[in-house]
Amino acid sequence: MKKNSPSQAGLFNPRALLAFALCSIGAGLGFLSFASTPSSGTLTDVSGPINYTAGPFFVSNPTPILFVDQGPECSGSAQPCDDYALTVTLPAGYTAAHPSASVKVTMSWTDTGSGSSDYDLYIYKNPRADCSPQDCTTTDGSEAADYQSA
User: Fold this and answer.
1) Chain-centroid distance, C-alpha 128
2) What is the rounded distance in angstroms from the CA atom of residue 64 to the CA atom of residue 61?
3) What's the whole-model pTM score?
4) Could you read off the pLDDT of 113-135 as tens digits, one per residue?
């Protein structure tokens, strides 16, 4: 019967340790690849529509909790959210010349087959004193959105 030395058993096996490390790094990079593309954009009076994609989201985020939260709680992979920083840049006098102008934001998704996909859209005007950081990219549920989907 061959007996393995302590340096070749379990986690002390260099090949097993290297394989575990590479898999861990790959999984970590995989989570980073699901960020929004692009993460920000600028809308002007002469620019065309702006599109962005995010996801997939494998875990639901059942926030905000009724009667407790004002807005969503976003906490990494446990409570996934996505952020897109939209900047609207208009020339001087634009709003006076176009008093009915507006920005239209729409959202769509492909259902994963469960028939229960449901996403909400929260819009925050920035900067805000009640968010930390002030751009509201991290929320704890206490920040009420300026606009929210139904």
Assistant:
1) 19
2) 8
3) 0.64
4) 777 777 888 888 877 888 777 77
